Amino acid sequence: MGTVITVTSGKGGVGKSTTAANVAVGLANSGKRVVAVDFDIGLRNLDMILGLENRIVYDSIDVMEKRCNLSQALINDKRAKDLYFLPASQTRDKTALKKEKVEELIETLKKDFDYIVLDSPAGIESGFENAIFLADQALIIATPDVSSVRDADRVIGIIDAKSEKAKNGGEVSKKIVINRLKPEMVESGEMMSINDILNILALPLVGVIPEDSKIISATNVGEPIIYDKNSLAGEAFRRLSKRILGEKTEFLDLKSKKGFVNFLRGLFK
Amino acid sequence: MSLFEAIFGSKKKKSADAAKDRLKIMLAHERAHSLPYIDDLKKDIIEVVKKYAQVNDIKIKTEKNQDIDYLEVEILLNNPSKS
Description:
The structure holds two protein chains of two kinds.
Chain A: E1 3-8, H1 16-29, E2 34-38, H2 46-50, H3 60-64, H4 70-73, E3 75-76, E4 83-86, H5 99-112, E5 115-119, H6 126-133, E6 137-142, H7 146-162, H8 164-167, E7 173-181, H9 183-187, H10 194-201, E8 205-210, H11 214-221, H12 232-244, H13 260-268
Parallel strand pairs in A: 1-5, 1-6, 2-4, 2-5, 6-7, 7-8
Antiparallel strand pairs in A: 3-4
Helix pairs in contact in A: 1-12
Chain B: H1 3-8, H2 15-34, H3 38-50, E1 55-65, E2 68-77
Antiparallel strand pairs in B: 1-2
């Protein structure tokens, strides 16, 4: 049976879809059969980040409402052979999802795939609830700013309340991914550090993605940054994927290129 | 404070520290309201306390610090001297 990983956050725009896309590619490149499912009905984005928007014929709502078979809606990525993508409907809104239908779909996917990566919509209403309901693991994405960390805390507080696993006495494994970290700002005391955020959220860390302008270029062309061998963010996503697979991988050594004063400061520490 | 700062003087409070402090205060408050059972718990505690004393309201605060969750219950008694 496959593992359901829900990528979520409280605040929008912190990199959920980017993380979902890169983790899905990373897992598939490690030889796992992966399906990435966009749960952001009406505001889909995962298709463009994965570069698969031109191949969409059917979407998950079509499958749930039996207008097509699952295999007709699934899109196989040409670069990552073991990666499939199930798009969200762009013409419907999130009330179109019915809990029983979602459950049925996820259970079917679990039989066919090792990992089901769910890209959850921002916010904490029905769309989020559907994405978290059957999650085995939740990746909570937070950027080092007060609104994102505050909203992440709120989401963490309600994950178990919305989870089927928690209802049956289990617990969803919840882990933090810190996105868009700027090491030089952390060093100058103008950005919360990794430890600051973990202290507040009190959950284990599974990934740190540095701010990287290459992510915008990667999204522009629909090729996830994880394919870019020279990008720091790409390397961070490769390591994140390995950690999800249970490998012990060191976190990237993120330090700004030090100026003379900082060099002196380092000597005195 | 590092030795460097002791010698060369440290600048004013950094904004990252301000962010941390503001978040901690805000979340300590918000977490109290995010527990799903908090209202029921409140009602039950009031019922029990009523057996022994006059009580109008109780305040419940929760705090999370690394692995430890605290639940702080403050019971406001009516005229505690007379009861």
